[in-house]
Amino acid sequence: LVFIGNICRSPIAEAVFRKLVHDENLEHKWRTDSAAVSDWNVGRFPDSRALSCLRNHGIETAHKARQITKEDFQTFDYILCMDESNLRDLNRKSNQVKDCKAKIELLGTYDPQKQLIIEDPYYGNEKDFETVYEQCLRCCKAFLEKYH
């Protein structure tokens, strides 16, 4: 799961997917991580509002922001992102990687409610983070069901 800064949407999506995988007893089948396209927040914990939102749903995370690497494109089967800007950046970066095996697509592609874009809640409020959580939950459930 890849996003611009790796402190709002992607840590939520990563934590949600990790919990779904755990709840389904599928940890042996999935390696989950999240990363940023940019290096703005490398080493930082997720936004406090993202952490609060996750805690409200009984989910903890120890994630620290990192930037996507060439190896990510070579080792992960799927790289899912939140918006067209991320998608463009990731496709551009993947073209510079020899042996890229990752399928790059929007996480919203899996949304049963057809909300393709998951908007960045950074400049919003707690309600916006809750919306991101709900979208990520729907999309991650559908993604896991498809590839489980």
UniProtKB/TrEMBL annotation:
Q: Which SUPFAM superfamilies match?
A: Phosphotyrosine protein phosphatases I
Q: Tell whether Transcription is among the UniProt keywords.
A: no
Output the Gene Ontology cellular-component terms.
cytoplasm
Annotated signal sequence is none
Task: Kindly give the SMART domains that the UniProt entry links to this protein.
Answer: LMWPc
Q: Which UniProt keywords apply?
A: Cytoplasm, Hydrolase, Protein phosphatase
Location in the cell reads: Cytoplasm
Q: Please list the residues that make up the active site.
A: R9, D120
Q: Which residues form the Phosphotyrosine protein phosphatase I domain?
A: 4-146
Q: Which reaction does it catalyse?
A: a phosphate monoester + H2O = an alcohol + phosphate; O-phospho-L-tyrosyl-[protein] + H2O = L-tyrosyl-[protein] + phosphate
Query: Where is it mostly found?
Result: cytoplasm
Origin superkingdom: Eukaryota
- This entry's Enzyme Commission designation comes to 3.1.3.2, 3.1.3.48
Q: What CDD domains does the record tag this protein with? A: LMWPTP
Q: Could you tell me what this protein does?
A: Acts on tyrosine phosphorylated proteins, low-MW aryl phosphates and natural and synthetic acyl phosphates.
- Family statement: Belongs to the low molecular weight phosphotyrosine protein phosphatase family.
* Record-given protein name: Low molecular weight phosphotyrosine protein phosphatase
Q: Which organism is it from?
A: Anthoscopus minutus (Southern penduline-tit)
Name the encoding gene, please. Acp1
